[in-house]
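Quick one, probably user error.
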């Protein structure tokens, strides 16, 4: 075949960019009507086509969900790559949005505090996880005979720092966290989110999703739980590997009907886009979810707890986390 020339490469690149723009232009951003419409065209023309030489703060509005390129999943990785590239450039140029910079500075300097008896197993929860859910998870583990200490961490164990473009801060934070585990003799972690699972798997030899213990709990109290008659809507599509066994166990209960719906935990939420995303998901949940008697919405992420709290007046149902609901139902 003929050798590639610079002009050929440039032409191929231009064709690819036009193809990406064409795909994005067919879609639309489903998270907001408050940014230049349609948002997907703005991203492609202003950031991709111009080579991302002049990144704009609007890059922090993107939720990285990829729904603007629905039906064309091969372009999602490019979209995410370019959004993160723009964010890193803004941070490197010392131009991050003030609200984001203040949040990162505060959380990056937060002291790590291990609570409970010092043992080799540590429960790791994110700081946006509501207190009631944290208590329910700790109760669940104790009922399953697990001895553990626990640690509350910000920013998805540091992964959110990377998503927000603060690569150097993310690296420092993760090194600090790894040293903390080593100094406390922690060998394994029980985690409550896919983000923490991914990060801590790089630091410890054993990482266990807390949902694994939901299976044991359902089996242990199956007789009591079998009297439940509930239509459950679980917010957050979650992590298939992390959640599948637990959800299968719960769905096996004779009176349980379970379906999953996209939640705020499925997109990138940061201080810049939080209100926008909350408003969007609130409208979506009120518009699309219809309820029968004995219905409940439960969640797997603290961000979805914010969503339900903001929507609670219009949602006549039981609201809570999955561990809370099972604990209450088993009357323990």
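Nope, works fine. Designed sequence:
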């Amino acid at each position: 075949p003929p050798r590639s020339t610079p002009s050929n490469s440039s032409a191929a690149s231009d064709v690819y960019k036009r193809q990406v723009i064409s795909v994005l232009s067919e879609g639309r951003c489903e998270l907001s009507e408050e940014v230049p419409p349609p948002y997907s065209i703005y991203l492609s023309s202003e950031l991709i086509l111009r080579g991302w030489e002049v990144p704009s703060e609007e890059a922090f509005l993107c939720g990285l969900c990829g729904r603007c390129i629905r039906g064309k999943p091969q372009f999602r990785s490019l979209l995410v790559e370019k959004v993160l590239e723009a964010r890193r450039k803004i941070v490197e140029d010392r131009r991050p949005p003030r609200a984001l910079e203040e949040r990162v500075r505060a959380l990056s300097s937060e002291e790590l505090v291990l609570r409970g008896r010092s043992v080799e197993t540590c429960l790791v929860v994110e700081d946006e996880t509501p207190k009631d859910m944290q208590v329910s998870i700790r109760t669940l583990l104790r009922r399953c005979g697990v001895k553990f200490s626990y640690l509350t961490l910000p920013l998805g164990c540091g992964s959110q720092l990377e998503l927000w473009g603060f690569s150097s801060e993310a690296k420092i934070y993760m090194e600090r966290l790894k040293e903390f585990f080593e100094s406390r003799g922690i060998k394994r972690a029980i985690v409550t989110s896919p983000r923490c699972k991914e990060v801590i798997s790089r630091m410890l030899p054993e990482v266990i999703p807390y949902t694994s213990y939901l299976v044991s709990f359902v089996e242990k109290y199956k007789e009591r739980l079998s009297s439940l008659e509930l239509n459950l809507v679980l917010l957050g599509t979650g992590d298939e590997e992390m959640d599948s066994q637990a959800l299968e166990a719960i769905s096996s209960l004779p009176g349980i009907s379970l379906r999953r719906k996209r939640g705020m935990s499925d997109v990138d939420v940061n201080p810049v886009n939080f209100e926008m995303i909350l408003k969007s998901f609130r409208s979506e949940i009120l518009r699309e979810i219809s309820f029968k008697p004995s219905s409940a919405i439960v969640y797997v992420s603290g961000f979805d707890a914010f969503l339900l709290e903001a929507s609670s007046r219009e949602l006549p149902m039981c609201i809570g986390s999955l561990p809370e609901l099972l604990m209450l139902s088993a009357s323990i």
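The two ends are 72 Å apart (CA to CA).
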